[in-house]
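Retro notes, structure queue

What went well: the backlog is down to a handful. What didn't: a couple of records were mislabeled last round, so from now on we paste the full input next to the output in the thread. Example, using Pvc16 N-terminal domain-containing protein from Halogeometricum pallidum JCM 14848:
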Amino acid sequence: MGAYTAVADASETLVELLRGQMRDLVVESDVALTSPGATGTDGTPRLTLFLYRTEVNPYLRNRDHAGTADSRPKPGSLALDLHYLLTAHPSDGGSDETARSLEQQRVLGRAVQVLADNSVVTGSNLRASLADDRELRVVFDSQSTNDAFEVWNTFTDVPFQPSVVCVVGPVFVESETAPEAQRVVSQQVDKHLLEGRDADE
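Corresponding output:
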């Protein structure tokens, strides 16, 4: 739990979840973890997931965990919220623009449905270092609508495509440094407790 790979493992969890439950509309390679503005020689994927912002969760900042195996206290982990832009892209083939747009919207709708149905990801669906975590929550963020436009404005000559923003977390990244426990150098005994014990004897 809390490895430095936690952010990447969260992204892989989402991508594999979408790939596994969208086979009726797209092939696995058409779901990609990449910028929606990226294009390659093989064409644009049908669905892209783009991590555009990472924030420290203010409510879980410096959360403390139990000590390590040798009883030394472990530093609090850093709790992160991951902001993703989920975008559907039109298919490359076909000349009917209406048909292509409708298919594009179906892909986005199906992706939203998958993530909504799995708003709490647990168990075997969690990848790698997240496997020991109890859950990963997926929330669609209507407050971040402007984020989508700001992200798209960074792309040159790339037309805007239907997109939604979702926030995923908490993702914990723990320090590998375990501080030495403070050595006991003094001991204080309550005088009244000693007097009470003597009286009982």
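Agreed that this is the format going forward. Reviewer comment attached to the example: The chain is about 25% helix and 20% strand.
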